[in-house]
Structure prediction request, 444 residues.
Amino acid sequence: MTMKIYDLAIIGGGSAGMMAAISAAKNGIKKIAIIEKNKSLGNKLLLTGGGRCNITNLKDTKELIQKTSSSLYSKNFLKHSFYTFSPTDLIDIFNEKGLDFKEENNNKIYPITDDSNSVLSVLLKYLKEYNVKIFNNINVTNIIKENNMFQVFDSNFDSNFDSNFELIAKNLIISTGGKTFPKTGSNGDGYYFASLFNHKVSKVLSGLISLNSNEKSIENLSGLTLNDIKVSYYYNSLKCSKIEHHTYGNLIFTHNGLSGPAILDISNKIAESIILNNMSNMSNMNNVNDVNNEIAIYLDFCPDLTYDLLDAKFKDDFSCNGKNKIKNYLKFYLPNRFIEIFLDLSNVDLDKTLSNIKKSERKNIINNLKGFKIKINGFNDKNQGMISCGGVKVNEINPKTMESKLVKNLYFVGEVLECFAPTGGYNLQIAFSTGFLAGKSIVS
Ligand SMILES: Cc1cc2nc3c(=O)[nH]c(=O)nc-3n(C[C@H](O)[C@H](O)[C@H](O)COP(=O)(O)OP(=O)(O)OC[C@H]3O[C@@H](n4cnc5c(N)ncnc54)[C@H](O)[C@@H]3O)c2cc1C
Prediction:
């Protein structure tokens, strides 16, 4: 078998891997190969944003850094990659090939076509133009480094058979993604590759995932959406510290719990605290109550009003509109379908008129409006998480290049790293920025 030596081999042809190849090629690297286990590149990219691809977010870089930071890793880790390749740099690359973008709520950026295929096709155009060699249907299972060269093998490698895959490269980028949505090809192989080179990998949990709840009270609410609420989660409900995390947005009740952007974002914080507190027996989140730890979230239906303001307003309204029934009054604050359950849990009769509401009942109502508690039993099917929280430890990666601090010429980019972010285009920007930075850092 004649063996071609590549300047750069990239394992994993997702967003990070493709961008790494493009960036290296722009920087003059000639012999580049992408090795991908699927029959085509970018399978996960095609699913993003419900097929519309929320490619990035136009918040300024400082806010980008803040949004993508976590107490699990240094908040400065991604800084250099974002400054090297910002959201506008990303957009420019696509604009150059004629693809335009539009901005939606919260600075989210989508292609004007509303179709992730158009994003992928620009990346493929670049790869073709730069003569990047693409090996599809190759499931890499082993990598060794000998004589300053990386050797990459597929599953059936056996030196007695010429037909099996082996590739040699001076530089290697691992961009195999995380381990959620494994049907897209990203099933955690990169963590094993990292371990081959003695890299540490943190516990990995699914993030941006729906939550399960067995609460009887919400059983019949499936399909109901709560708009613009604040969702909080306290570490101290895990009996640890008192740090509060919260997100704003919409929540949707599902047949077995909760979903919607606010829930997906808070799920990252729950995963983060499980990893941070090393709760090994909770890693599956199958039944958190088994381990005597309670995870609960709190819904604030009036995030713009403090408890005291709300109390003053209620007192006022109750005295002016004494004949109104509480169930009708609450329509200003809650959707119809939710009111009965809400009043039941607040121990207030539905048909009570405002003038008959006792002080203790008013307090119950306001307490629940500001912090309606829902106990959580676990994450939804972990394969359905949109991202992986945790991964290759970034303290062993040089943030200025994405090169391993342990092995020369070895790089890690994208979701295989322990970094993760909320919804809004941040996760793809992490993949593109880290990929671009690594590609730019390669010297042949
Ligand atoms: C349903 C869904 C919707 C999403 N929507 C958005 C969104 O709108 N905006 C956003 O910012 N983020 C979104 N994300 C997250 C985003 O898709 C990921 O963060 C991003 O794709 C990570 O890119 P990556 O290149 O690091 O990994 P991936 O895209 O996962 O690519 C890794 C590649 O490596 C290949 N690979 C793995 N192991 C091997 C191996 N052993 N040999 C060969 N190849 C291998 C895989 O087949 C895969 O093609 C979404 C995710 C999901 C699942």
Notes: The longest strand covers residues 244-254. Residues 11-17, 35-38, 43-45, 47-49, 53-54, 138-140, 175-177, 181, 184-186, 189, 386-387, 414-415, 425-428, 431 surround flavin-adenine dinucleotide (CB under 6 Å).
